[in-house]
Write a structure and sequence with these properties.
elongated; Lipocalin; twelve-stranded antiparallel barrel
């Protein structure tokens, strides 16, 4: 291979692998996201076009599942302040520390007051509970690809590409609870939040019918709402391929992303989505394939591809926390300022998740990916191994979130802080009073932490390997491929998962 071609490949590789590292930053929320490696194949728009100048029809089955580490990542993201895994459970209680009673402090060691989940006991009894999650996520589908040239020149082709993934996905949070035998049974004969009877434990609290949003599945049996199948994001691309020399092939392309099934109503936590959550967009990218070494028996090559997708805004359901109060989307509230103004405590209040979940305009911004693979090829067989990296911008919210709920005085329901350890005297727009001493305070847009309901900027990556059999001597060349990958080796928003993929490709 010529020295100039080798330098070109090295430069392109450096650019592609460095691009996703720009401006990665984090906030504090976990949201499901598209699995590019599964939906498009690890090499994305790099196809057999550089081996087969005719068209290509390909069917790619794929499967992915979270690893144990990925399950812990999901649990920590959905839990309270990094807690939620079996190694770091969340402790619920309704016992107030006597020394801190004026401030509504929970007993030492407790994380969350059970009253916010509609669990209560008599004054002389104590409720204690330990909660953790055992999440899993599984993905299966078929990606159908049609790649065909529409005009050819000597050394180059203009082509179109259509990709349509049919996907089935199942998510589970699997909340597990152990009620402390030192506590007593909860009161169920009185009315609690939303004028509904108090429930006996946290497991019943997160599935109560009065929660319109944010329910959590309990145990090993997930509801049907956490299973989703349908057509994912369909992608159309127009591209140009060129043979720069005998040992170097180049692709560039532009296209559009048409969203598939985007059913998302916020009713269940960790509800599956397909593709990019119903956002339409456009894409642009480039790829290169070159030979580093070859003889009569074997050749060694490198393939690279990078693409960037920009997604347009659309409305989505998101839940938000109060400033400085993690998990406060579950705090008990009163439904209106007028109700909070009443001096009597007979008003039971309402579940905060119903007020702190809103349909807002989401701007996803740019998402990019880059992949590099080394290939070792013989006459019919190719073995490849490589790495992939993905980057995404911080989401932005284009709506004002006005919850409309209110906090009552310290003498009743909301005198108990959600936590005894987090920002006891955090400064808010009303001054430096702790949350427990706010008196009939109405929540406004300034109280809402918008970042708590968005997907953070992030960089993630993984590895893959594959083996491919190709027969180009047939009238219609055929290719069979099988491979495996692990994704989410680093990064904050992509839970670690392993997967398998394969493909059956037929030249047209």
């Amino acid at each position: 291979m010529k020295q100039s071609s080798f330098r070109f490949l090295i430069c392109v590789l450096c650019i592609f692998l460095m691009f996703p590292f720009a401006q990665a930053r984090q906030t504090s929320v976990f949201l499901d996201s598209a699995d590019w490696c599964a939906l498009s194949g690890p090499l994305g728009y790099q196809t057999l076009s550089y081996k087969n100048r005719a068209g290509l029809l390909s069917i790619t089955p794929f499967f992915a599942r979270t690893t144990p580490r990925g399950g812990r990542q999901i649990a920590e993201r959905f839990g309270y302040m990094g807690k939620g895994s079996c190694d770091a459970p969340i402790y619920f209680s309704n016992k107030i520390d006597e020394l801190g009673n004026d401030y509504g402090l929970l007993e030492v060691g407790a994380d969350v007051h059970a009253i916010h989940f509609n669990v209560n006991t008599t004054d002389s009894d104590v409720f204690r509970s330990t909660v953790f999650f055992k999440p899993t996520s599984a993905l299966f589908g078929l990606n159908c690809v049609l790649h065909t040239p529409i005009r050819s020149w000597e050394g180059g082709d203009l082509w179109v590409d259509l990709r349509a993934p049919f996907v089935a996905r199942k998510n589970k949070l699997s909340l597990q609870e152990v009620v402390n035998t030192g506590g007593s049974a909860a009161v169920t004969t009185a009315q609690g939040l939303d004028s509904s009877p108090f429930v006996t434990n946290i497991s019943d609290g997160v599935t109560q019918h009065n929660w319109r949003f944010g329910k959590m599945d309990v145990g090993c049996c997930a509801p049907d709402d956490l299973e989703l199948w349908g057509l994912g994001d369909t992608e159309f691309a127009l591209g140009y391929s060129a043979d720069c020399c005998h040992a170097l092939h180049f692709d560039c392309f532009v296209g559009a992303v048409v969203p598939g099934d985007s059913s998302q109503d916020g009713s269940w936590m960790y509800k599956p989505i397909l593709g990019n959550g119903g956002h339409a967009g456009f894409l642009v990218g480039a790829g290169a394939a070159g030979t580093l070494f070859e003889n009569d028996v074997i050749s060694c090559g490198i393939r690279m591809v990078a693409d960037m997708r920009y997604f347009f805004a659309r409305k989505q359901w998101r839940s938000f926390d109060i400033m400085g109060k993690p998990w406060s989307r579950y705090i008990g509230l009163f439904s209106s300022y007028n109700q909070a103004m009443r001096l009597s405590s007979q008003d039971s209040g309402t579940s905060g998740i119903n007020h702190l979940t809103r349909q807002v305009v989401i701007y996803p911004g740019i998402r990019a990916s880059a992949t590099c693979a080394f290939e070792l090829s013989s006459e019919y067989t190719t073995v490849a191994f490589g790495c992939m990296a993905r980057a995404q911008e911080q989401e932005a919210i284009g709506s004002t979130v006005t919850p409309g709920g209110a906090i009552k005085s310290s003498s009743f329901l909301l005198s108990k802080l959600l936590s005894r350890t987090r920002n006891m005297h955090d400064t808010v727009h009303r001054g430096d009073l702790p949350l427990s001493l706010w008196n009939r305070a109405e929540l406004t847009a300034q109280d809402i932490d918008l970042l708590s309901g968005t997907m953070e900027a992030d960089l993630s990556g993984g590895l893959f390997a594959s083996i491919e059999y190709t027969d180009t001597e047939r009238s219609h060349p055929i290719s069979l491929q099988a491979g495996c990958f692990v994704d989410g080796l680093f990064g904050a928003t992509i839970a670690q998962k392993w997967g398998l993929f394969g493909s059956l490709s037929l030249g047209l």
